[in-house]
Amino acid sequence: IHNALIRDQIAEHAGHEIKTIGDSFMVSFDSARRAVGCAVGVQRALARHNRAHPDREVKVRIGLHTGEAIREDDDLFGSSVDAAARIMALRASSDVASVTCPTTSR
Asked: How far apart are CA 73 and CA 32, in angstroms?
């Protein structure tokens, strides 16, 4: 359920899934607006799911950063990726502040 809800929002907001590690996603977007839209969409989709299934509640933390990332092969690196991961680690479940959303230069 977790992966499907997040992937639906990534697709809806034109995100690019870079990789997953466990239940965490690294996603990039062409604009900060799309990244924020995806984060809000994920929160709303999870809220609907959690209301409908209180016995199977899903919570996530979302870290956003608007800096440019360095693309190497099929991965992203750089200070913006590190910053998004640090922001996410500081948030409580269901806060926007596991999806890392740096923008990329192409």
From this structure: 23
